[in-house]
Amino acid sequence: MMDSNFAALQQLHSSLRVAIYCRLSKDDNLDGESASIHNQRDMLETWCQEHGYTVAGVYADDGYSGLYMDRPDFQRMLADCKQGKIDIVVTKDMSRLTRNSTHSGQLRDEFFPKHHIRYIGVTDGVDTGKDDDLIAFRSVFNEIYSKDIGKKVHSSYVIKAKKGKFTGCIAPFGYMKSPEDKNFLIPDKDTAWIVQKIFGWAAEGHGTNWIRRRLEDEKIPAPCWWNRKKGLRNHVTKWEKEYGEKGIYMWDFSTIKQIIANPVYIGTIASQKANYRFKVGWLGDKKPEEWIQVENVHEPLVDIDTYNLVQEKVKMRKRPDAWGNYGIFAGLVKCGECGSTMNQRVANAKAKTRILTCAKYNKYGVAHCSQHRLELDTLYQIVLEQIRTCAALALADETKVMEELRKSCQCDSEEESRRMKAKLSESANRLSELDVLISKLYEDWVAGRINETNFTRMMEKAQGEQEALQKKADMMRECLDGAAREQEDNSKWLSLIRQYADIKELDREMLHLLIKEIVVHEDLSEGRRNTTVEIHFNFMKQGNRLTVKG
After folding, report:
1. Which of 26, 217, 487, 494 falls between 20 and 30 A from 135, CA-CA?
2. In angstroms, how far is the first alpha carbon of the chain from the final one?
3. Pairing mode of beta strands 342-348, 353-358
């Protein structure tokens, strides 16, 4: 009899699908070899075999903290649980599943019961298939333990930082970790020359945009490609996904900025650059003066004079220029083809001709957009004259201007507005009738005067009509309200624009008050460049178009 019961139990166990979950973080390295992923897996597979369970899958997250849920294989396991592929989840102990008491309670009391899953922590005896009042206390202890370990690890990092030890996961681009000491950096002969090139260009006064395009032109792969080649990471950039092989040579601007600002390239180790909090994570970057910096730790790739020169040139590029109306068009001028912002720069160093060009062209070259070159002085005169013209028209014939503005409103005529108001009134009356009808239907059903089938059918029909009418009424009301607002805005503009009939110069406040955006189009057909400037005033739907012959 006992043998038959045991056989039946074994058969029941073999039909249950078990998910083995293993986890190891940097903090857990302090637990010793027994906590390794390999040992966890061996132990749990042996345990399943001894108990007659079928292993449906093994899920392992190496290098992930138990405080957070965003672990790749952990999320994959939860997805399989939701799809009904798992009956039991097994870990070495509860701390492998999570060290967060809140998450532990959610999994134990909500997620696992909802999906009919049993959880077992082998070494600490946790089993949701049995009553155990101590499970909640274990979760709290695990969180306290994690917080304590976090403090110890942080203290060890601070000690290493003060000694000039490198504690990052991946060495800065241009360096590699020494085979003899992972906390010591040595130049990487494959990439160090690229860093030196970048600093050389920056020292000549070239900005990150220029450097980025030069790197692409010379087909120098970005750091992400080098990391994959060396087996450090498997990440693929957005440029590679969009442009394929060509994307390998497209550098991110932030990467170049970080390189030329990083003191690691003059032999300095800078650590503790960010603020973190337990269970929250990154809170923000610290100021450079708050970093722990140790100089002359490893071989520099750049001499100190070049590094300081580059930092000064970066600061100089950020200073306001000497022209009084610098930046008045900032945020207003857009490329008519790609929609990017038009950036201001100097086209001729001697004549100091200021021009506006497409930001996408500046960053990525002619393969992505054309230059859309427009001299700043030309745009200035175009906008100035357009404002003067509009102001003169407003002063000369206010009635005519109001009529033109009224035509651009959402309701093109008074007749259309009256018709819309009449329909809105009809809709309101019908909605009131439907409210009464629905109430009466409910009363008839409760009183038993109609059966449930007829009640459901009639109710669905009435509610369907009610929803459709309400949607139409909302749209008409929005249109009428919009037209009223536009008429009010037009009146305000008329009183405002009169002030600018005799203006002599533009300023930023005036431009943003009167203009919504300025769009620059470029036509390169027939070997000539024709530039069209489209000014969209805040008070008009259609933009004023003026063509500048190139």
Report:
1. 26
2. 100
3. antiparallel
Instruction: Copy the structure tokens of residue 371.
Output: 């230059």
Alpha-carbon dihedral of residues 232, 237, 243, 248, nearest 10 degrees? -40
Gap between the Cα atoms of 223 and 420, Å rounded: 61
- Hey, is 251 helix, strand or coil? coil
For residue 171, with 0-12 CB atoms within 10 Å meaning exposed, 13-18 middle and 19 or more buried, which class applies? buried
* 3 state DSSP class of 310: helix
| Mean pLDDT estimate for the chain | 78
Count how many residues are written for the chain: 550
DSSP string computed for 151-178: HHHHHHHHHHHHTT----SSPPTTEEE-
Task: Please give the structure tokens belonging to residue 437.
Answer: 């009808």
- Categorize the per-residue pLDDT at 265 as very low, low, confident or very high, splitting at 50, 70 and 90: very high
Neighbours of 113 (CB within 10 A): 13
State the pLDDT confidence band at 274, using cuts at 50, 70 and 90: low
8 A C-beta contact, residue 247 and residue 241: yes
Mean pLDDT along residues 365-384: 90
Helices (H), 414-451: 414-447
| Token duo for residue 480 | 């009428």
Q: Are strands 353-358 and 126-127 parallel, antiparallel or unpaired?
A: unpaired
Q: Are 539 and 352 in contact (CB under 8 A)?
A: no
Q: pTM here?
A: 0.40
SS3 string of 270-281?
A: EECCEEEECCCE
Q: Is 215 helix (H, G, I), strand (E, B) or coil?
A: helix
Element (H, E) at 105: helix 101-106
- For 92-190, list the strands marked E by DSSP: 118-121, 126-127, 175-177, 185-187
Per mean pLDDT, which of 77-86, 138-147, 315-324 is the most reliable? Answer: 77-86
Distances (CA, A) of 35 to 42, 45, 73, 88, 422: 11, 15, 17, 21, 76
Residue 60 forms beta bridges with which residues?
22
Q: What is the pLDDT of residue 409?
A: 53
Backbone angles phi, psi at 177, to 5 degrees: -75, 140
Distance, in Å, from the CA atom of 463 to the CA atom of 468, rounded to the nearest integer, reads 9
CA torsion 270-272-274-278 (nearest 10°) is: 160
What 8-state DSSP symbol labels residue 544? E
